[in-house]
Design brief:
Low-confidence stretches: none
Radius of gyration: 34 Å
CATH topology of one domain: Deoxyuridine 5'-Triphosphate Nucleotidohydrolase, Chain A
Largest sheet: 6 strands, antiparallel
Helix content: under 10%
Structural class: mainly beta
Number of helices: 1
Number of strands: 12
């Protein structure tokens, strides 16, 4: 079995673990033990450094580097991918500012989670709160080389980004509906047996 080794930056750091036997990812928590401050950027892209405490408050639009207290010894041929947690994103509006974090095996520094508050309210996270999930991924070895010919179409896809969701003449289905002639239908008037009241009989 492949082993991902983790070194703690402080004795009070808790090593992450899988929550269930079949979990593909393990959770990373906010652990700032031994840190004096934390860094981030405001919604106006102004950098800031704030004192580290038992909790971190992230204002709307801010991006913050949240420490995990973990340094990973990733096996060669693997990488670790950081993903947002579903509940944290839905309920609090905290997502990863870089969409997905990629940690290569030759990175041997502390892992920080780049959180972005996309909600309209300030969000507070406490020490020990789970803020992201991490996944050990096996890399595919490949090389890059120039090709002398432009790649040909491999499927019916035409166009660029988002082209598969656009209706064009090529993928439009036309249904011909035969013309119908307007038919005027007259409703027959029912005639009574007797004459209307007030009528007189001609002599």
């Amino acid at each position: 079995m492949t082993v991902l080794k983790i070194w703690k930056t402080h004795p009070n750091i808790t090593i992450p673990k899988h929550q269930t036997a079949q979990s593909a990812c393990f959770d990373l928590a906010f652990q700032g033990a031994g840190k004096r401050d934390y860094n981030g950027y405001s919604h106006m892209n102004k950098p800031f450094a704030r004192p580290m405490g038992a909790a971190i408050s992230i204002a709307p639009g801010e991006r913050v580097l949240v420490p995990t207290g973990c340094i990973m010894d990733i096996p060669e041929g693997y990488s670790v991918r950081l993903h947002a947690r579903s509940g944290t994103s839905l309920k609090q509006g905290l997502v990863l500012a870089n969409a997905e974090g990629v940690i290569d095996s030759d990175y041997v520094e502390e892992v920080f989670v780049m959180l972005h508050n996309i909600s309209g309210n300030a969000v507070t996270i406490n020490q020990g709160d789970r803020i992201a999930q991490a996944e050990l991924v096996k890399n595919v070895e490949y090389t890059l080389e120039e090709t002398p010919a432009r790649p040909l179409h491999k499927t019916k896809r035409q166009g660029g980004f988002g082209s598969t969701g656009i209706t064009t003449k090529e993928n439009m289905v036309v249904i011909n509906i035969p013309e119908t002639k307007e038919v005027k239908v007259e409703t027959p008037v029912k005639r009574g047996r007797g004459r209307p009241k007030g009528s007189t009989k001609k002599k």
